[in-house]
Amino acid sequence: MTSNHLALLGDSIFDNASYVAPSESVIEHLRRTLKSPHACTLLAVDGDVTRQVHAQLQRLPPSTTHLVLSVGGNDALSWLPTLDHPVSSVMEALAHLNHIQTDFTSHYDYLMDRVSERRLPTLVCTIYDAVPGLTPALETALSVFNDVVTRSAMQHRFDILDLRTLLTEAADFSEVSPIEPSGQASQKLARAIADWSVAV
User: Around Cβ 3, how many Cβ atoms within 10 Å?
Assistant: First the structure.
């Protein structure tokens, strides 16, 4: 049997052990789902933004056969203060959103270029938007980031895992921090990633 070695890159969507105890994290669920001889390595770091994933790429095990990337949520969080700035018109608000999107695009596209250089099957995750308590306005703001994620993934011919349709229940989000995936979500993510890895 040919063995796959998956590497998880990104942020706390994958590095979520501290938010799910005593339940299992994404990497724990994935290791149990894949089983030997398949393997997976967690390189994602809680709190990392897009530009920090380059360091994760440098630590890829030589045996890596598949990449899974989930990043961008922390980039969005960093723009929250700007989103609270008063504006005089909807057009001015859209101009601010365009500035945010342009900045994120430059970082995200550069990362995707570096990922593409690895020439490995790659699964890219969108940013989920069913977080309990998320306002409609912030949900709309997230679409600005998700547009970048999906567009860049398609341009690079990567597969896409849309977390907006996978994680939709309140129970998918951690009781410790509602912006983090729960144990239930970890299991959903692991199953979706495992299914993808054997299909490509």
Answer: 11
Which pTM was predicted? 0.95
Q: What is the DSSP letter of 102?
A: H
Measured CA to CA, the distance from residue 137 to residue 84 in angstroms comes to 11
Residues 6+ apart with CB under 8 A from 183: 20, 23, 24, 25
> What digits encode the pLDDT tens for the residues 44-97?
999 999 999 999 999 999 999 999 999 999 999 999 898 888 999 999 999 999
In the chain, the largest separation of any two C-alpha atoms, in whole Å, equals 62
d(CA 73, CA 108): 12
CB-based contact 31:64 (threshold 8 Å):
no
- Bridge partner residues of 122 (DSSP): 67
Distance CA 26, CA 36 (A): 17
Q: Give CA 98 to chain center in angstroms.
A: 21
pLDDT of residue 73: 96
137 token code pair: 């306005």
How much is the pLDDT for 1? 56
Given a cut of 70, the residues of the chain with pLDDT beneath it are 1
Residue corresponding to tokens 């912006």: 179
Mind listing the domains of the chain with CATH numbers? 5-122+145-199 (3.40.50.1110)
